[in-house]
Prior knowledge:
With 124 residues, this protein is mainly alpha-helical. It has one domain. It has four helices and no strands. The longest helix is centred in the last third of the chain and has 42 residues. The termini are far apart.
Amino acid sequence: MAQHQQHSAAGEPDLYRDTWVRYLGYANEVGESFRALVPKALVWATYGVSTAYVTADAADKGRRAAQKTTDGSGRTADITVAVVDTFVWQGLASVAIPGFTINRICAASLYLMGRATRWPLPIC
């Protein structure tokens, strides 16, 4: 199956969507998955990585919007829409919703395992 790539007007691949860099947006999901086993500071650091990814992607989309817009009318609006749209949607899709979901599933799993077994926390 062919992999779909988004390209800019110059034909360059989208660094934040077509390369390994996109996996940085999932760092907090890994952190949440191991929350019970690693220091809390490490979990928060993974949120920093994911948020940095989302911010960089939003800045890149703003840069691309600026390159596409040649006249002055509406240029600021186009850039603002590109940045805000990317930041909000990527923030929700890469950081907030998956992080919350994984956190609650892991918390429920630990709770149920703690009630159903006498295993120590790292084993649960």
